[in-house]
Specification:
Blueprint lengths: L11 H20 L7 E2 L2 H5 L11 E12 L5 E6 L12 E7 L10 E11 L11 E14 L8 E2 L13 E2 L11 H7 L4 E11 L6 E5 L24 E6 L12 E13 L3 E6 L4 E3 L16 E11 L5 H14 L5 E7 L14 H13 L6 E3 L17 E6 L5 E2 L13 E4 L2 E4 L4 E2 L14 E7 L2 E9 L13 E2 L6 H21 L4 E7 L7 H7 L5 E2 L12 E3 L2 E3 L2 E5 L6 E5 L16 E5 L2
Length: 606
């Protein structure tokens, strides 16, 4: 599914790979010989006024107060902080001492003298493009100077302390920190130090990785439902910060909830969300009672068309997932006439054995919809070639149509296969499809390792409507918003731009035959309303991107690292100028959800 912004959390497989790399690094670091001698320096001298320490790969001895201990997992260790410091706001007064899988033997409040080797650790590896974490490896406590010391007061992060600008341009590792000018520099200048956020609003729900995102700037790009909306490549929302807990599991939190009181702990950096408060003190959850939205039902003369990413749906998923998706389609979307689905998997899901058929997946969902009181939908789709459309290995995800035959007709034109390209037929000035359903230029390199668009010819009250269902390639491989080179590289946009051009060309062909053709382009485009992908898709053909017509605070279908953002779209041709459009927020803001995407719907008067 979906750095720059937009890359969603990596798949379980990539997380396991990252874990293996971390384990290998741990083994390498732990195999290093302990330093025989080390220069005695201050922690602030080690951290310096840049991101990389001038003491990197050197042995040092430092003294500080233990402020927190991480005693679980393979990245155990403790944070030490100099309670006095050097008075320079660009230099951190704290550092993490990495003990690998060994539980630290010291205690919070101890003032310790530690000898270790300075290391720059890149979470996810240097090739991922992320920043480094300056830490001590192979730390040896030389002495415990005193015990029971008060901890240094935390630095309060709020709207007055966090700059509005996100980062300077260029390689950040080559630049001196300017914490009063740039948010990323401020966070880096506090690396390892105790920080605090007060009454922080949750802007990214809690998840299975025991993390959530809050904002320290409550008035920054707010959505009406409590989120923080990502509105451009230069409006990254500087107050977002990840919270994890050193004291146990986080509370289950949805967007708009508040961690009432103070949340405090050392500020860390990781590759899956950037700067993170490892909380030793956690605010009390104040439930904002966010509820899933419901949209109105279409009237008799309206054609209701929805799109929904159902997140790797296959028959091996529990019945409860089918029931929740079905309930959402019936109750929250009010049983649309047509629903395009993304991420429908084959009949045995992520079992890589050559199965590509998905009839059991569709049937199980349709039965669940009927049981929930909805219509008995029919479906149309084309099986992909095995292992050619990306997604989970063996899953063979694809896009498809559900439609209510009691209100909508489907014009079947046989011959569409995984590799046959649909074309536009001119029937005396009226456009038609050579195959229905059909796939757009499926052997073109633009679709390599990605889902191919599915085109269908529908009829509603005697009028033909063409639907093009899409699931463009993901943002995997893009650098994160907090990359060490700014602005970050968004390499995945190249392929999405090629895909958008393919769909644009097909729509042009339809409109060249019939300028009044009713065309709906929709699905998970994995890109923003302000992106080059959308500009390429709409260029010269008069398509209206409906998310962009909403107020700025309502433009989101997905929440990633605390940014609410648009990834899913419905676009309409000029012949469909009368519409009522709604993004129905049912999933993305919630810890407990049926999918990671919100569905959306348009009611058309064709």
């Amino acid at each position: 599914m979906k750095s720059g912004l937009g890359t969603p959390r990596p798949s379980r497989l990539s997380l396991l790979t990252a874990t293996a790399l971390t384990g290998a690094l741990t083994a390498t670091l732990l195999a290093m010989p302990a330093p025989a001698s080390a220069a005695t320096v201050t922690i602030s001298a080690v951290q310096g006024g840049t991101r990389k320490s001038t003491y990197n790969a050197q042995d040092v001895t430092v003294t500080g107060i233990v402020t927190a201990i991480r005693s679980t997992g393979s990245s155990r260790g403790y944070w030490i902080q100099d309670p006095v410091g050097d008075g320079n706001p660009a230099t951190s007064e704290a550092i993490f001492a990495f003990t690998g899988s060994t539980t630290p033997s010291t205690k919070v409040g101890n003032k310790v003298t530690v000898k270790g080797r300075v290391s720059e650790y890149y979470p996810g590896g240097t090739s991922a493009g992320g920043q480094s974490l300056t830490e001590l490896t192979q730390p040896q406590i030389q002495s415990t100077v005193s015990t029971g010391n008060p901890l240094p007061a935390p630095v309060v992060l709020d709207a007055s302390s966090i700059p509005a600008a996100y980062a300077p341009s260029g390689n950040l590792e080559n630049l001196t920190l300017a914490p009063s000018s740039y948010a990323l520099d401020l966070y880096e200048s506090l690396e390892g130090m105790r920080v605090q956020v007060d009454n922080a609003r949750v802007v990214g729900p809690s998840n299975e990785f025991n993390e959530l995102f809050v904002t320290a700037k409550p008035n920054e790009s707010p959505s009406p439902r409590g989120g923080t909306v990502y509105g451009s490549y230069t409006s990254q929302n500087t107050g977002r910060i990840k919270v994890m807990s050193l004291t146990g599991a986080l509370p289950t939190a949805d967007v708009g909830d508040v961690l009432d009181g103070s949340t405090a702990g050392p500020l860390d950096f990781d590759g899956f969300g950037g700067y993170t408060i490892h909380a030793t003190t956690l605010g009390t959850l104040k439930d904002n009672s966010l509820s899933a939205e419901k949209t109105r039902a279409q009237n008799a003369g309206e054609l209701a068309v929805a799109t929904y990413n159902v997140e790797n749906l296959d028959p091996t998923d529990p019945q409860s997932k089918f029931d929740r998706l079905a309930g959402g389609i019936v109750s929250n979307l009010s049983s649309p006439d047509i629903v395009t689905l993304e991420e429908v998997q084959d009949n045995n899901g992520a079992t890589n054995n050559g199965v590509v058929a998905a009839d059991q997946t569709y049937t199980k969902l349709i039965n669940a919809i009927t049981a929930a009181g909805g219509p008995t939908y029919a479906y149309r789709q084309i099986n992909p070639s095995n292992s050619q459309d990306g997604g989970e290995p063996g899953g063979n995800i694809r896009v498809g149509f559900l439609y209510n035959p009691a209100r909508v007709g489907f014009t079947d034109r046989p011959g569409g296969t995984a590799t046959n390209a649909v074309s536009v037929v001119n029937n005396g000035g009226t456009a038609a499809l050579s195959y229905s359903p059909g796939r757009i230029n499926p052997t073109n390199s633009a679709w390599s390792g990605s889902r191919k668009p599915l085109v269908g010819e529908f009829t509603f009250q005697g009028k033909t409507v063409f639907l093009i269902a899409n699931h463009f390639t993901s943002k995997g491989g893009d650098q994160s918003l907090d990359a060490r080179v700014q602005p970050p590289t968004r390499s995945s946009e190249t392929q999405r731009s090629q895909q958008a051009a393919q769909v644009n060309t097909f729509v042009k062909q339809l409109l060249a035959v019939q300028p009044s053709a009713r065309v709906v382009v929709l699905g998970d485009l994995n890109d923003f309303e302000f992106s080059g992908t959308l500009s390429t898709l709409t260029a010269g053909i008069g398509l209206t991107d409906l998310p962009a017509t909403l107020p700025a605070g309502e433009r989101y279908t997905y929440v990633y690292q605390g940014n609410s953002q648009v990834l899913d779209h419905i676009l309409t041709s000029s012949a469909l100028s009368s519409y009522d459009y709604d993004i129905v927020h049912t999933n993305a803001e919630f810890a407990d959800r049926a999918s990671d995407h919100d569905p959306q719907i348009v009611r058309l008067n064709p």
